């Protein structure tokens, strides 16, 4: 289906051989002067720094409304400060959790610790390369636009490559102009890259919501991902992912229908259940003896008052299915609050958007490098919307996976670059923050005549604080990664 087209993974032995071959090819190009001809250079043994002046005219055109982009840079700066606070809190929470409550799961494999498409099994090669290239260009264009909006010149754009895999991108402003630029303008430029990734991810989420509205369920019915042991469903032979079409000869086209039908039944009743087997696609009719929902939750340790408040009473019918979902659950889950049919109050939306973002980030880890479970993907069909009629089911799935991986990578790049350590953008922002604070103390001392701080000492403290914070955060990140192995 749509997620398999570009889902390619590589084994470590193949990766090692490819890197060795790439290194030998780079050495050959370097010796023959090819890299100089291409305005490229080799760094860190196997990384190709490929420069180009292409895109400068487009950058100049886009950055012409200088006032707009300066205002955008100011908004970006505030967004980045807030996001940096979230990143810092996350790192603090992660290290506390690593110390106080070590994970019981097996530690990740070495390939899962690197965000390289095809090497990390959670990032498929095809989708990963496409998403990283586009997201890195967006990131660097964000920097470039702010640089031009504040009068700084851009020498080159470029990519950092290992073979066909992009490891990073860069925009090369004139270094002296960055150093000599007013602090606020420099901060806006550093903030523009990660903030543009974050804004792009949000826009893509809205587009994904629009695409989600073009899908319908291929067949009416509901399915579950888990069957309760000892329940009527298990004894009747219902399996996870089987689609329930009807219960007691009453049609079950949605989760709401399921609830309505079950409310009209009682514990102990023997009913028929029409299903479609997920493995074979064949229809079957099962005979189910319904159990007591109230007794089930009491055995789990629920309080009687809690059950009463939830409207669960003795004799309520219980089938024994968990995580019940409609046929469009896969795309509904990806669209979240952006889905056209999602209903919530403004407060509900405000709560759901951050939670949905986290859900999207962990989706590839739950589904082993995919955006949708293959069984649930197979339950989707194209609706009668204009886009569905234009591109069909396969086109909708392609757009869905493209949107998902672009969202995932943009969020990853945006927040990772806000880690307050050099060489990330957050490290440069943190350094300027320290310098601004020290200059503030210096000015207060001059006005009150309580202390004197020499400008060189301000620069010294700024550099020391930046270096120590970067080193400390590096140790924290390494500890978080290594802790599961200890």
Structure description:
The structure is a single chain. Strands 6, 8, 9, 10, 11 and 15 form a six-stranded antiparallel beta sheet that branches. The protein has a four-stranded antiparallel beta sheet with strand order 1-2-3-4. It has a two-stranded antiparallel ribbon with strand order 5-16. It is 55% helix and 14% strand. The chain is an alpha+beta fold and 486 residues long. The chain has helices at 12-31, 34-37, 56-62, 66-100, 125-149, 175-180, 183-212, 232-236, 255-263, 293-299, 304-309, 329-335, 346-366, 374-377, 386-416, 425-448, 455-482, and strands at residues 40-43, 47-52, 154-162, 165-173, 215-217, 222-223, 226-227, 243-247, 250-251, 270-276, 283-289, 291-292, 317-318, 321-322, 325-326, 380-382. It is elongated. Helix 5 (125-149) packs across helix 7 (183-212), helix 7 packs antiparallel against helix 12 and helix 16 (425-448) packs antiparallel against helix 17. The chain starts with 11 loop residues before the first helix and ends with a helix. The mean pLDDT is 84.
